[in-house]
């Protein structure tokens, strides 16, 4: 009989092999799905400087987009033939000008004739300029896409109309009498979005040569996905460790060495004319334009990403603007990030992140999402993953741990409203830091993670802001706030703003820094803390000291955090990517509860970020003062940011205050701050009373409905014991997924 210890080692080895293979299969599954799509191309046909072998580059866009002119320049740069569909295919096939053919057969039959001619055409190694109407014929586009890469020249509609006017074109194919050309262009856009492989965002004033250069860069990027990899913040300097792709890091959440994933080459930087284009877009369009720059199409193709983005930011938000910016007082503005389903800024990320996660999910295993929440993240995660399609929900479970006494009663009702399906919230008799530390320990326990894979076919992941797929969507709303101020005439593009953020885990602040990297002129990020001011003290002194620092329950519980996870990403950024330094600092913090950075590094930190904190009295006073002056009601976290912004902002620089939660989530405190004599004990009555004294912003109807439906808020509460939390994890898996026999 074999020794027990030997059997345990063998089982552990098998578990780790299964876990590693599962992660590898996740990447392969996603990339196989993308690379074998009829809308994709082989990865062998372009080198660093694009060189066509047997594939085509197909330029697509509306009439007047410049496809013919750009095609000539691109073909010349590559030294390959250029084919204009009008001149070299249609007129040769029909033996007459295109205009004459259109007059002869009429619009409806013209599209069919055009598609038939294209289906008979075959070539390779060329640049092909399509007509504006080619994408309306499905058969022709399927035929063409099999031969190469479709590049969409995305030109603003106003620019197209002006160009067509200069060209004396007053009618295009499919435009009936009395129908404005703008309406036809809008109708056609859906077909361009359907068939694209990659987009070139063309700014007003871009020259033909500049657009051609963008086309070449887009083609090179499409081919070279290895240039967009991710590394751990704790990677050894110069290490040649295995590259991770977007689909890897979304599923893994935390790096195996305990670090957080960051893009190896930083964020893409957009030029001014691209930003001016994006400024004219709706919020979902802005999100798509930015995320396409950050997510390689080999991980998520543009057509699929568009579907996810528009599903994430739609009727589920109470405001059509999604994240509107409103004037508060003087040169202070408030960005309302609470119009999502759970009345928190977390919805801006967590209505999209679950879709990204499910898309990257391999078919052969289940995933359990573990989340620690200080109040808002949990309900947003439960809402986001709860909205997945049925098949995805069957393979993804969500388990949320929250401090039982560390959230508001309304937040607790929201968390415990999710009782059906693969979703559960568990109260813990401790603080947020314990919950977060326990989850990170589970991820680092290879015995536990391997056991769950072998026994249940289940892999652990996370949806906290340590997960890159959770943090990335937050970059969008910081950029959107600046673009709104520009569009409203508050600033000229290029003029700086400050952003003030109530922060505990530093994820929101890190997203603002990434927006700055992408080219948004943010001067300073102002980090606002409550009396749990570890982040504020660190940014001011360079010392992170958790020794003898008990967590103090506050009026702004979502930022009652001592150990800030995303501070690790910030230090990696400011240290120039020094993974060894970051690893040493956070190893020291774990061991000694203390670290101090050098003076030179502190100076770099303070180039981007300043910080302050406010007392409970100052928080309440800020709520009352703003409401008295403007009639606007802030929640406690926004009030913390307002109080700190008043002290730290440059009076000549506009500041955007991030309003991270609807004031109704903290109704008793807001009623107290507004000195209301009636403060009911029932949360529903509290909201009604609050609505009667503070009408701006309007009451959040989703939140009110949730409280009405979950009047009791029954849920599991467990002791602050790591082994007990592990038991909850295993119990959740057993209840959610079939056990592997």
Automatic annotation (TrEMBL):
This is Threonine synthase-like 1. Keywords: Amino-acid biosynthesis, Pyridoxal phosphate. The keyword Metal-binding does not apply. GO terms for biological process: amino acid biosynthetic process. Its cofactor is pyridoxal 5'-phosphate. One of its GO terms (cellular component) is cytoplasm. The lineage of its organism: Eukaryota, Metazoa, Chordata, Craniata, Vertebrata. Signal peptide: none annotated. The gene is LOC120051096. Residues 230-313 form the Threonine synthase N-terminal domain. Pathway: Amino-acid biosynthesis. PROSITE patterns: DEHYDRATASE_SER_THR (PS00165). The keyword Metal-binding does not apply.
């Amino acid at each position: 009989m074999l020794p027990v210890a030997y059997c345990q080692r063998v089982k552990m080895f098998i578990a780790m092999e299964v876990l590693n293979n599962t992660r590898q299969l996740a990447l392969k599954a996603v990339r196989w799905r993308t690379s074998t799509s009829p809308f994709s191309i082989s990865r062998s046909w372009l080198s660093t400087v694009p060189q066509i072998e047997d594939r085509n580059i197909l330029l697509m866009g509306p009439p007047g987009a410049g496809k013919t002119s750009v095609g000539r320049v691109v073909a010349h740069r590559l030294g390959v033939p250029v084919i204009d569909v009008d001149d070299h295919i249609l007129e040769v096939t029909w033996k007459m000008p295109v205009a004459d053919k259109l007059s002869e057969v009429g619009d409806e039959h013209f599209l069919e004739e055009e598609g038939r001619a294209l289906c008979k055409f075959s070539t390779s190694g060329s640049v092909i300029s399509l007509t504006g109407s080619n994408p309306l014929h499905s058969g022709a586009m399927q035929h063409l896409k099999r031969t190469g890469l479709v590049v969409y020249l995305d030109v603003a509609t106003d620019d197209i109309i002006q160009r067509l006017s200069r060209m004396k074109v007053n009618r295009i194919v499919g435009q009936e009498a009395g129908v404005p050309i703008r309406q036809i262009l809008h109708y056609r856009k859906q077909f361009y979005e359907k068939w694209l492989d990659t987009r070139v965002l063309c700014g007003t004033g871009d020259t033909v040569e500049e657009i051609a250069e963008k086309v070449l860069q887009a083609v090179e990027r499409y081919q070279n996905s290895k240039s967009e990899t991710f590394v751990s913040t704790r990677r050894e300097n110069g290490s040649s460790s295995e590259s991770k792709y977007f689909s890897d890091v979304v599923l893994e959440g935390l790096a195996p060495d305990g670090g957080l994933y960051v893009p190896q080459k930083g964020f893409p930087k957009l030029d001014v004319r691209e930003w001016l284009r994006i400024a004219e877009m709706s919020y979902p369009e802005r999100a798509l334009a930015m995320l396409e720059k950050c997510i390689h199409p080999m991980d998520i193709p543009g057509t699929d990403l568009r579907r996810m983005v528009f599903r994430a930011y739609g009727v589920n938000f109470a405001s059509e603007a999604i994240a509107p910016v409103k004037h508060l007082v003087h040169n202070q503005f408030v960005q309302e990030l609470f119009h999502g389903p759970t009345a928190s800024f977390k919805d801006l990320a967590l209505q999209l992140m679950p879709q990204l996660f499910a898309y990257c999910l391999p078919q052969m295993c289940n995933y359990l999402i573990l989340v620690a929440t200080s109040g808002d993240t949990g309900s947003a995660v439960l809402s986001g993953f709860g909205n997945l399609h049925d098949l995805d929900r069957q393979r993804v479970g969500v388990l949320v741990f929250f401090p039982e006494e560390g959230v508001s009663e309304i937040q607790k009702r929201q968390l415990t409203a999710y009782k059906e399906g693969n979703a559960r919230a568990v109260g813990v008799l401790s603080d947020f830091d314990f919950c977060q530390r326990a989850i990170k320990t589970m991820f680092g326990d290879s015995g536990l993670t391997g056991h769950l894979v072998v026994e249940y076919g289940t892999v652990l992941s996370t949806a906290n802001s340590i997960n890159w797929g959770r943090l990335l969507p937050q970059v969008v709303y910081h950029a959107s706030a600046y673009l709104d101020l520009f569009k409203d005439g508050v600033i000229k593009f290029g003029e700086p703003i400050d952003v003030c953020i109530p922060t505990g885990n530093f994820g929101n602040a890190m997203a603002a820094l990434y927006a700055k990297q992408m080219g948004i002129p943010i001067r300073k990020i102002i980090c606002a803390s409550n009396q749990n001011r570890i982040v504020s003290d660190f940014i001011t002194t360079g010392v992170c000291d958790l020794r003898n620092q008990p967590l103090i329950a506050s009026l702004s519980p979502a930022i009652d955090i001592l150990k800030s996870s995303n501070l690790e990403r910030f230090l990696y950024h400011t240290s120039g990517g020094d993974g060894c330094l970051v690893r040493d600092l956070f190893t020291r913090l774990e061991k000694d509860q203390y670290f101090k950075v050098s003076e030179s590094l502190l100076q770099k930190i303070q180039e981007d970020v300043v910080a302050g904190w406010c007392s409970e009295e100052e928080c309440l006073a800020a709520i009352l003062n703003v409401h008295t002056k403007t009639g606007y009601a802030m929640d406690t976290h926004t009030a913390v940011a307002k109080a700190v912004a008043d002290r730290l902002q440059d009076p000549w620089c506009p500041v955007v205050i991030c309003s991270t939660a609807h004031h109704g989530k903290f109704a008793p405190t807001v009623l107290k701050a507004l000195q209301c004599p009636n403060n009911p004990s029932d949360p529903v009555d509290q909201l009604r009373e609050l609505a009667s004294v503070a009408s701006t912003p309007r009451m959040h109807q989703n939140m009110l409905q949730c409280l009405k439906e979950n009047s009791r808020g029954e849920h599991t509460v467990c002791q602050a014991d790591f082994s007990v939390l592990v038991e909850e994890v295993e119990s959740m898996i057993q209840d959610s997924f079939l056990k592997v026999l």
